[in-house]
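Problem: given the chain below (198 residues), write out its structure.
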Amino acid sequence: MTIATVKTKSESGMSALSLVYSAMFAALMMIGANITAFVPFLVVGSVPITLQTFFAILAGLLLGSRRGALAMTVYMFIGLAGAPVFARFGGGFSSIISPTFGFIVSFIFTAYIAGKIVEKNGKLHGYIIAALVAMSVNYLFGTNWMYVAFKFWAAAPDAFSYKVAWALMMPPLPKDILLAVLAGMFGHRMYKVLKVRK
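Solution.
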């Protein structure tokens, strides 16, 4: 074997450790989707405090754009394959027609964008900005998917409108803004320890 054929870890793609981290974040997403089943007091009013957006952002911040997006893709396909890993222990290919499936797809972009920003700006404020931008992408993609789904293939009341779709997203918004900031702060601190992103 010549020197020219030898590839370093960074050239060949993902190390075994980074694959483990990707699998770990896929597992955290499964828990985060149904955290209220284990901790019932995390329901405020009628709004469950899920941790999916938090973990999707954190995956990008710690693993980087490609590996973070991979972890979220693995999570999505595990659910589509039939494992009950989506919210309310949902799963199966039929989930794709759910009005909220857009949020699951958006987690891939959420992780990718969060990772992309911190790959260029590794300071604390860069992590917080990355988390907030990624959270915004999650809301924009997921809410627009939900609106289109309700209008074209899911049963929706006649009064349902684009404003109503966004109104439905207002109760969890303060929670997700707070968790995004915390993800940015936590991600910045943890990356100094883990340093898995390359």
